[in-house]
Amino acid sequence: MKILIATSCVPFIRGGAEILADSLRDALRAAGHEAELAAIPFKHYPPERIPDHMLACRLLDLTETCGVRIDRVIGLKFPAYLIPHPNKVIWLLHQHRTAYELWDHPRAGDLIHYANGPVIREAIHQADRELIPEAKAVYTLSQNVSGRLRRCSGIGSEPLYNPPAHAGLFYNRPAGDYLFFPSRITAVKRQWLAIQALAHCRERVRVRFAGGADSPMQQAECDNAVRELKLGDRVEWLGVVSEEQKRDLYANSLAVIFPPVDEDYGYITLEAMLSSKPVIACSDSGGPLEFIVDRKTGLVASPTPESLAQAMDALWVDRRCAAAMGEAGRARYEDLNISWKNVVEKLLC
Amino acid sequence: MAQNHGLRILIATVRVPFVYGGAEVLAEGLCRALIEAGHRAEIVAIPFKWYPPERILDQMLACRLLDLSETVGVAVDRLIGLKFPAYLIPHPRKVIWMVHQHRQAYDLWQHPLNDLDRYANGADVRAAIQRADTELIAQAQGVFTISRNVALRMNRFCGLHATPLYHPPQMAGLFHTRAAEDFLYFPSRINPLKRQDLVLEALAQTRLPVKVYFSGPADEPAFERTCVALAQKKGCADRVQWLGPVSEEKKRDLYARSLGVLFPPIDEDYGYITLEAMLAHKPVITCTDSGGPLEFVVHHETGIVAEPTAEALAAAMDSLWEDWERARGWGDAGRQRYEDLNIDWNNVVEKLLQ
Amino acid sequence: MLKINWFSPLPPARSGIAHFTMQVLPLLAKRREVALWTDQDQVSPEVQRIARVTRYTPDDPPWRKINDGAISIYHLGNQPDLHGGIWQVSVRQPGIVVLHDLCLHDFFFMLWIHYKKDRVSYLAALERWYGEEGRQAGQAFCAGGIGAESMAQRFPLTREAVQGALGVITHSRGALEALGEAPGCPVAALDFPYAAAAESRYREWMAARSAAPRPPYRLVVFGYLSRNRRLGAVLDALAGFNAREQFRLEICGQLWDEANTRTQIERLGLSSLVKLRGFLPEPLVEQKLSTADLAINLRYPSMGEASLSQLQFWDYGLPTLVTRTGWYASLPEDATAFVRPEHEVEDIQSHLRAFLADPGAFRAMGERGRQSLEHNDPEKYVDAMTQFAAMALRRSPLVTALALAGRVGNDLSAWLHPAASAYLLDRASQEIVTIWPGKPRGYP
Fold first, then answer.
1. Between C15 and which of A34, A98, C9, C248 could a Cys-Cys bridge form, CB atoms 3.0 to 4.6 Å apart?
2. CA A116, CA A123: separation in Å to the nearest integer?
3. Which of the listed CATH numbers 3.40.50.2000, 3.90.1150.10, 3.30.428.10, 3.40.50.1980 matches domain B172-340?
4. Phi then psi for A280, rounded to 5 degrees?
């Protein structure tokens, strides 16, 4: 088949969605198809630019190339998933968030600051409701995204999980004496919650953080918290690490701690499972909860320092339990059939 | 315009899905050159389907609706537009480096190979393309073309003035030369516009036992079959080799070992082949109506410019075949001419960003 | 829970609309969360008890906070010092516009010419809606060559105020259409909210009325009495009426031309029958209305607005003479005594005669007027307003669609060849309509 992956892009920015699109293209090619990206530039501000780009996408024609049919279009992001095609499948990474769950987010809220924000938001809602159902099938990144799509747009969809990058390269080693928290340092990932939890731990739990800070301010906030709570000897900041280093840190950890708020998906949870490590998350963490089975493959705490501390202590004292949970996590990963082969099959059927 | 260092530059072009050709090579070459010059550069490629004709209008409007002026609050310092209709994308600091306009609305209108004029609304869409080009190209801060040929067309049809700006073929530095062997080389896609068939007609009429090697993929299998049959029919099939698509390395090797290069297309925009031949110190045989190559081939100094007839081409091929010394001299002169023309990415970057 | 942003004059501003707001707001605040917005320097404490009041500067509204509300309701009237800021915000963020004055020429004239010294905008607006004729009239008006009333009637400029709105509320059925100023968005004509006095109070007034000795019967005229209140005709009618001694007329309120009126009263020999009371404080108003027999509430010409004073007369069960024009023409036949504009004196006299023949019939008319006030129940008003707002909000994608169409049209005009414009304009419109169809499909 000839397949185009329709996605939106912001020039000079390359993030998770771009990596995913590339991985999908590679997986389609590995399965013997011809696949290419159609990346349409998107500037979302000021708000009236959004309808402009929506219309631009609607005016494109991806049905054929040089007289040969393009068999399928896979839409990933707004507004590229609005491009019309008789054989379109949407694999929704997320809708235009600042019109939905991030509308009034204190830091990420954007449309809400404009005079025409509400009107554009309403326009986006209506367009999604009208046009997403044009697709032959609608898949999403996770149950979390499907849930939002159902609640906000009344549209049903099926979660379709994809593997983290280099899934085959993760491995397991005997547990060392630290919990691993690999993630961008930013408010929604809640490193600060893990730090506060540490202060409540009975045991001498240690946490190693890896990842870059979204802004120097984020790092400074964390450093201040560590200093105030006198946790300097219990916390280590590794900054940005290489992929190999990251896998090694997973492999040698006792457990992975990842308590973000309302995460779309959460590759970290899967990386932990691939490394046969239990995961500690919170009841409002979103994506990770689709994979963690409480007390079987990890622990789900309430989003409070005390509750999180209890979970951290529990694994710290019972290493055998932690190891068993890790194994169970690995088995669960296999059971979930999270593979590009599965993704390709679903998107092309 | 402001300082020319560390700029954020977008290259706006179109992409026909699953087709990878000269325009893609050019865009990538430009992107690399800009990055090497210390800037941040990316290619923005808008999918393009030109049929039925009204689709062209849709995509023109789509391009007008895109906003590439900034990303995440930081200005995009330049937009370099290469192809229609991507060069219509608005931007306050736009420079056009025209690969070509939509030729079907201009020089190829009513050409046998055109399809725009076969539609009921073809004339209307043609008028719209011409008007849009005329109104909007002029809004750019600088207008360049890849060759004088393209600039002349723009002037003739739209009354617009543009500056030709030459660029090197891919891997220009890797072309080399060797002692000539007994064949002329025609390294182009097999395509009616390149006129492999004319060369075969000519080959049938040469006095001397000229040999020709063809390499390159066939854009249309039917045309390739026609050519092969023609060679048989004219009785020169024994002096022809069809090498098909060859690797870049093999291609450079063939250039290096050839006696000379044949490249007589119709009204070529630019013509990497001419430059590749010059880089390989080889003379070029081309035709008076070949377009781009004429900007580089100097008759009886770096090659031969013949009338586009079988007789004239046959005479040109014989002329090269009978005096290998002279052919080598012309080839070296061609290389010198290449140097003199300052065909260099640094020059391109400098001109586009001034 | 639809949170509503409310932009209107607020006490202590001297505006009937501030008073209107105080009637309606407490009921609205029971049903919805309300955020009040003001650019006034002062707001009475009583207002803060009903809903939270936030100040804004019209040049730089705090959109982040405003956007916590789901929809904005903008109250417009003719006073630029009270409504200028509100209008400015309404231009930038579409919402529901409530027109308390149907003709807004004076608003725009004062706002642009007097406050902003911006003649260009004023003339541009006239041209936008009324073409070259409007522009020239505006120029003449600025030079003093045309009367204000004439300008206002010919060029109401209402559309200038409502052009981007999601919906418009008026208090007078068909009035905008009659003015020729109907906008593209939905218009709801709601009965003006009026909380009738309690039955017990009404019965007190009835008692007071019966207690007063009859004849003579008491006629009243109330309010700001400019020329369109037709006092001259009333006095002429009374003067020419044989049985005029049966009546006494009290003129309560500020007279536009007191000297002239006094002269006319003298000339007509009505000095013993007609008294000028001037502007009365509230307790005296109550006294006068509760003991009056017939109110005279003529207006001609009328801009079409609803009359609060008419509702007040009915609150007191007072039968009323009204001119058959504008909003008044829509009043129930059996609760109103109509006077034709071209036959004022004749009709007034005819009604006076009828009154003397059967005062009971007129009393019944007043009763029916009071009963009709149930349509003006403020609870009903608030319900209708919130329903309309919810409906208008669902239409908001059309605002986006229209704005996009405008931008597309603008761009195309720079480069699109006429041969292709029919196709491309249609194509773009089709696509815009596909994305945002006029009737939204379902709403979760």
1. C9
2. 11
3. 3.40.50.2000
4. -105, 120
CB spacing of C415 vs B132 below 8 angstroms: yes
- Checking if the pLDDT of C441 tops 60, the result is no
- Band (pLDDT 50/70/90 cuts) for residue B1 is very low
Token output for C27: 């009921």
- In DSSP notation, C357-402 reads H-HHHHHHHHHHHHHHGGGG-HHHHHHHHHHHHHHHHHTHHHHHHH
For residue range C402-425, what is the model confidence (pLDDT) as tens digits?
A: 999 999 999 999 999 999 999 999
| B303-306, strands of its sheet edge to edge | B240-242, B212-214, B184-186, B260-262, B284-287, B303-306
From the list A85, A92, A203, the residue with the least C-alpha distance to A147 is A92
Calculate the CA dihedral of residues C203, C205, C208, C210 and round it to 10 degrees: -60
Q: Is B5 left (phi over 0), alpha (psi -120 to 50) or beta?
A: beta
- Beta-sheet strands, E only, within C77-123: 96-99
| Closest by Cβ to C442, choosing from A54, A104, A154 | A154
B8-165 CATH choice from 1.20.1740, 3.30.70, 2.60.40, 3.40.50 = 3.40.50
Q: Are strands A72-77 and A2-9 parallel, antiparallel or unpaired?
A: parallel
Structure token pair of residue C408 = 């597309």
CA dihedral sign, ordered C144, C148, C152, C154: negative
* Chain B positions in Cβ-Cβ contact with residue C428 (cut-off 8 Å): 61
What are the pLDDT digits (tens) for C248-304? 999 998 888 889 999 999 999 999 999 999 888 888 999 999 999 999 999 988 877
Q: Which of C400, C435, C444 faces A131 most closely, judged by CB atoms?
A: C435
Which 8-state DSSP code applies to residue C110?
Answer: I
C23 phi and psi angles, rounded to 5 deg: -70, -45
pLDDT, tens digit, 9 for 90 and up, residues C191-239: 999 999 999 999 999 998 888 778 899 999 998 888 889 999 999 999 9
Q: How far apart are CA B338 and CA C285, in angstroms?
A: 102
With an 8 Å Cβ cutoff, are B63 and A56 in contact? yes
Q: Which residue of C has its CA nearest to B135?
A: C415
- Summarize pLDDT for B302-322 with one digit per residue, the tens: 999 999 999 999 999 999 999
Q: Which of A96, A103, A122, A152 to mutate to test the interface with C (most CBs of C within 10 A)?
A: A122
Query: Distances from the Cα of B121 to the Cαs of A171, B116, B250, in angstroms?
Result: 63, 8, 46
Q: Which of A13, A38, A41 sits opposite B17 (nearest CB)?
A: A38
**B104 and B48 Cβ atoms separated by less than 8 Å:** no
A248 Cβ neighbours under 8 A, 6+ residues apart: none
Domains belonging to chain A, first-starting first, are 2-160 (3.40.50), 167-335 (3.40.50.2000)
Burial C130-152 (b: 16+ CB within 10 A, else e): beeebbebbeebeeeebeeeebb
* Chain B environment of A59 (Cβ under 8 Å): 58-59, 61-62, 65
* Residue C173 near residue C99, CB atoms below 8 Å: no
Is the predicted pLDDT of residue C118 greater than 60, yes or no? yes
CA distance B6 to B8: 7
- Which pLDDT band, with edges at 50, 70 and 90, does C443 fall under? very low
**C residues 22..61 contacting A (CB < 8 A):** 61
Q: Tell me, what DSSP letter sits at residue C171? A: S
Gap between the Cα atoms of B142 and B333, Å rounded: 33
**In whole angstroms, how large is the CA radius of gyration of chain C?**
25
Name the CATH architecture for the domain at C4-104+156-189. 3-Layer(aba) Sandwich (3.40)
